[in-house]
Design a protein that fits this description.
Blueprint lengths: L21 H13 L18 E6 L4 H18 L4 E7 L8 E3 L4 E4 L2 E4 L2 H10 L3 E3 L14 H8 L4 E7 L4 H18 L3 E6 L4 E3 L1 H16 L3 H10 L7 H14 L5 E10 H5 L5 E11 L8
Helix pairs in contact: 1-2, 3-5, 5-8, 6-7, 7-8
């Protein structure tokens, strides 16, 4: 039976994917922003509320490997201002829980403090989705949502809420269903949201093969074409672990703004070989932004 009651979710990968001590974690995140593969400087949070940004794609491996690439998402987000709720769509690595699992309420705990779950938004998303369920089981040991939260706390402190969603059904149809449910819930609640799709890219192949495969998939994301992205992933055996979240972000963008006004931008690409120097067996990482293009054409 699925666990649907709200409770405080303790960190599952602190001390493993990222430091468990608050001071060390803050220092680590600062170093990621200043890393040679990162933006190269500390972010500054704009005081205005974000406008015209739908969301981001961010990697979720251990900070040592994917953190510099992930920091590009949070550097860019900081420059665009504040929001009410971060909807973080992870992927189900454990097989636990429902196919699309929406965390019902309570708080998430990291070494940097507590973050409240937007329980009202959670309930509305589930009400409007054919597939999503309120569920905590899928989140208990899952890292893909968790590793994004310390970055947000580093920037915004306690001045935001989250809606954790874990996806185990990675199809275009499921992504469209979830995107429509989120859009309707956001419209009804009036939340200012940012959507973060948490995904690593190709896994455990040589450096050049991984980069080639990842660029095929990234090209389809930049074209904002979920169906072509999905076909490219399947046809080329690209082991992206969070395609459902990526497609949900694309579909959400396309029902939020006219497609001709949208822009997808690759902020940074690298893989674990760029960090470790071992190019024989790598995992790919990409940070992208999707939002209104402010009059600019989409990047190709």
């Amino acid at each position: 039976m699925l666990k649907t009651h709200s409770y405080d979710r303790k960190p599952a990968v602190a001390g493993y994917f990222y430091p468990s001590k608050p001071v060390e974690l803050r220092e680590t995140i600062s170093q990621l922003f200043q890393h040679s593969l990162g933006p190269g400087k500390e972010p500054v949070v704009a005081e205005r509320f974000i406008e015209d940004i739908v969301g981001y794609i961010a990697p979720h491996a251990g900070y040592m490997y994917s953190g510099p690439v992930a920091s590009h998402v949070y550097y860019d987000l900081a420059s665009r201002g504040r929001f009410d709720t971060a909807i973080i769509i992870g992927t189900n690595h454990t097989g636990l829980g429902s196919l699309i699992s929406v965390y019902p309420g309570g708080e998430w705990i990291t070494p940097l403090g507590r973050v409240k779950v937007d329980s009202e938004l959670a309930k509305r998303v589930v009400d409007y989705s054919e597939l999503a369920e309120l569920d905590t089981d899928a989140h208990i040991e899952e890292h893909s949502v968790e590793v994004q939260i310390p970055f947000l706390q580093y920037l915004y402190g306690e001045n935001f809420t989250i809606l954790p969603i874990v996806v185990g059904l990675h199809t275009v149809e499921a992504s469209r269903d979830l995107a429509k449910a989120i859009r309707r819930a956001v419209d009804e609640t009036g939340r200012r949201i940012v959507l973060i799709a948490s995904s690593d890219f190709n896994h455990y192949e040589p450096y050049d093969i991984t980069k080639e495969k990842d660029m095929l998939a990234i090209r389809r994301i930049l074209e904002l074409d979920s169906e072509a992205f999905y076909r490219t992933v399947i046809d080329n055996n690209i082991s992206i672990c969070g395609p459902g979240g990526i497609m949900t972000l694309i579909e959400y963008a396309k029902i939020s703004y006219p497609v001709e006004e949208l822009e997808a931008v690759l902020l940074k690409y690298a893989n674990s070989g760029d960090v470790s120097g071992d190019r024989g067996y790598v995992v790919g990482y990409a940070s992208l932004r999707i939002g209104r293009g402010r009059g600019h054409s989409r990047k190709q």
